[in-house]
Amino acid sequence: MAKKRTADTLLLQAAQVVTLDAIEDGPKAGAVAMNDLRVVPDGGIAIRKGKIVAIGPSKEIASAYEAPKRISCRGRTILPGFVDAHTHPVFARSRVEEFAQRCRGADYQEILAAGGGIHASAQAVRECSLLELTEGVRGRLDRMLL
After folding, report:
1. Is the pLDDT of residue 47 over 70?
2. Regarding predicted confidence, which is higher, 69 or 103?
3. Same domain, 64 and 103
4. What is the CATH classification number for the domain harbouring 72?
5. Which of 10, 64, 85, 134 has the smallest count of CB within 10 Å of its CB?
6. Are residue 62 and residue 115 in the same domain, yes or no?
7. C-alpha torsion sign, points 107, 109, 113, 116
8. Whole-angstrom Cα distance, residue 104 to residue 11?
């Protein structure tokens, strides 16, 4: 049996790990790159010294690496390599479809003309009660902060 490699932490049993294919020539961005995804069901990640050293199926990661810390990510999605410098946890209307439109190449003016955009989002917030907004953000923060 081959000797196991060492890692500091293993993230195992994620519902899925979604990442971009290996970056050879710098960061990826734009509509084409956002469609170049790798999805690993029941995914795992090995981390050493703060860097991801392997991504693959949980069974493969667990058999190839030993680590003092193992974290079960059951039911979660892990998105290594995706960077979002900020978030807006208080909102009343999801804009996920607008994001998908942008990934397919739509510009902001097209989204706005179709009734989307920041104005529609702000209007949806104005139409919610404080209680509705509070309940929404509480649920999102619970998921975001594990």
Report:
1. yes
2. 69
3. no
4. 2.30.40.10
5. 85
6. no
7. positive
8. 31
Residues whose CB is less than 8 angstroms from the CB of residue 122 and which lie 6 or more positions away in sequence, other chains included = none
Is the same domain home to 113 and 74?
no
In terms of average pLDDT, the best of 21-25, 27-31, 119-123 is 119-123
pLDDT of 26 above 70: no
Q: Are 55 and 19 in contact (CB under 8 A)?
A: yes
Which structure tokens are listed for 61? Answer: 């990661």
- What is the model's pTM? 0.59
Sign of CA dihedral 11, 13, 18, 20: positive
The larger pLDDT score, comparing residue 9 to residue 144, is at: 9
CB 12 within 8 A of CB 56: no
Q: Could you report the per-residue pLDDT of 103-134, keeping only the tens digit for each?
A: 888 999 999 999 999 999 999 999 999 999 99
> Is 89 inside any structural domain?
no
Instruction: Please state whether beta strands 37-48 and 65-66 pair in parallel, antiparallel, or not at all (unpaired).
Output: unpaired
What is the extent of the structural domain holding 39? 5-78
- Could you tell me the two tokens for 81? 């390599």
Domain count within the chain: 2
pLDDT score for 131: 97
